[in-house]
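Hi U.,

Before I forget, here's the chain from the pilot set. I'm dumping it here mostly so it's searchable later in email.
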Amino acid sequence: MCTIVILRQVHPEWPLVLAANRDELYARPATGPQVLLESPRAVGGRDVERGGSWMGVTNGGLFVGLTNQRGGQEQPLAAHSRGEVVLEALRAGSPAAIERYLDTLSGADFRPFNLLYGDATTLRVAYARPGRRLIERADVPPGIHVLPNDTLDSTLLPKVERARLLAAQVAHQPWPQLTQGLKTLLADDLLPPADQVPASLVEGLPDDFARRLQALCIHTPAYGTRSSAIVALGPGHVGHYLVSDRAPCEGPWRDVTGLLQAPTARPA
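Structure:
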């Protein structure tokens, strides 16, 4: 997952709404949402290469999403996959339990990442960075926020301000209109002017490629936006879980909320 847009205590019906794009190499195999865990029952995509996940939700209304920290690919392959963190956080089942789980980890054991976790009541972000054992954490305040491949609401990445602007235009609309607005946001492929891409984002990359990474919906020959999700959480439950298994500009979207319901046992 590379961009997560957050509407916290903004929408009149849903205390927490999240819209996310996953950007990845096209060659890296992955599946769409499936049941990742049975207890608690959790649904999310799975990375076939290392077995983890980039995002999931539980039937109790817990969300966990991970974005890679930019520059992380330059780090040597770590002993532990960042996708493991998402699965174990979902298994923990609550924000408080995730806090205890994060206390057992060392950021030095992973390539750098940002972890968003919480529910309709509590929402936090954690940062794992090379050379730092402590995984730093902070509360996400009410409002419209964006977690990119950097810290929450980073002013360094032009796409962050673009996402916040588009989200603000639809944040208070009824659910059907909000859904359409967030789909449009996730499919937005507008590129910032070249002179608005900071030099630190271009370092080591071709100029045009670095600029293309600042679209919300990324398209390059080998890397781009692979899938998208929109999630609405109420107290103790998931109201909506919508996904596109392709780039959101290509669709189609489907509703996978029903996967969170355990199958009813057949009578003997």
